[in-house]
Amino acid sequence: MFDLNNKNHRIGFIGAGVVGTSLALALNQFGYNVGFIFSRSIKSSEIFAKLIPGCNVVLSCDAISEVSDIVFITTPDDEIQNVASNTKWRSKQLVVHCSGASSLDILDHPKKQGAQVGSLHPLQAFASFEDGLLSIPGTTFAIEGNEFVRNYLTSLTTDIQGKVIYLNSQDKVLYHLTGVMMGGMLSTLAASVSDLWRLFGYDRDQGINALSKMIIQVGVNLRELGIPDAIAGPYARGDVGTVKKHLTELLNRSPELLSFYCEMALIGLPYAFEKGNLSRKKFDEIQDLLLSFKFKGDSK
Ligand SMILES: NC(=O)c1ccc[n+]([C@@H]2O[C@H](COP(=O)([O-])OP(=O)(O)OC[C@H]3O[C@@H](n4cnc5c(N)ncnc54)[C@H](OP(=O)(O)O)[C@@H]3O)[C@@H](O)[C@H]2O)c1
After folding, report:
1. Ligand 1 pocket test, candidate residues 75, 79, 106, most atoms within 8 A of CB
2. The CATH classification of domain 10-167, taken from the options 3.20.20.370, 3.90.110.10, 3.40.50.410, 3.40.50.720
3. pTM score > 0.85 for this model?
4. Which atom of ligand 1 is the closest one to the Cα of 83?
5. pLDDT tens, 163-218?
6. Which residue of 36, 74, 130 sits with most ligand 1 atoms within 8 Å of its CB, as the best mutation to test the pocket?
7. Band of the pLDDT at 299, cuts 50, 70, 90?
8. In the predicted model, is pLDDT for residue 6 greater than 80?
9. Chain mean pLDDT for the chain
10. Hey, which residues does 34 pair with through a beta bridge?
């Protein structure tokens, strides 16, 4: 149906948000023909089209479908099925969504109309198209689809310097929550510990400024040393006294974070043990300490 080496297929986007714009810019940069955009608001469509030479704004999903060989639906997850179901599709056309949590069942309508369907999920946190574009090289993209679709999306992802993994429908949610726990929840953790800086006279911006440097280094350590060698912290070193000081301080000054600290340290202990820095005795001692403090903050 498609020649995998041909970059001249006409590509259309439905949804001019951060992911759509970043992906379209990357495709354009690597010679793909991003020709059409339709978004809910004309303003978003116009901004998108201005960024991509030769891209035209069209006024409906049907119009995108009519003129595009490949259509990326980059609306919020909750809108994908709605968009897919209310658009007239064709055979010899590929329809792709970029949701990590949804499978291909939400593209049933295009499939019934003869289109090929797939999903391409970048495992990355997109906040702006400028940073989004810069983050694409080296980012892992999860692909779902039949063999033809997988081959095409693999070639496209490799062209924009992404890495590829393949997923089955039943593993999509588990895969997606790893990204949310790594990205979204890490940023929530960063927000809550940055707020603690207010308790010793600095504001949260100063906190995140200092702490985000650590996040970057932790990322580097994890990539370069792997697990368990990159696992660090007083519980990983067997510093029982320091762990006890932390728990007492949290109980007194920020009890709402106490059970979280305990839970994370309890999850981390087996990795610290695997690393070989922790004796069985220290492991048990720290585990008992954490378990004894875990619920103490709840009543405060
Ligand atoms: N953000 C991330 O970090 C990330 C990472 C990986 C995957 N994803 C996935 O990428 C997809 C897009 O997410 P996003 O973060 O780019 O969202 P976003 O920035 O909120 O952009 C969504 C865009 O879709 C447009 N839109 C909404 N409803 C529409 C409709 N019915 N018809 C046409 N356009 C519509 C919006 O419209 P207007 O601007 O025109 O009003 C907006 O421009 C989602 O499936 C998400 O799960 C996101």
Report:
1. 75
2. 3.40.50.720
3. yes
4. 31
5. 999 999 999 999 999 999 999 999 999 999 999 999 999 999 999 999 999 999 99
6. 74
7. confident
8. no
9. 96
10. 11
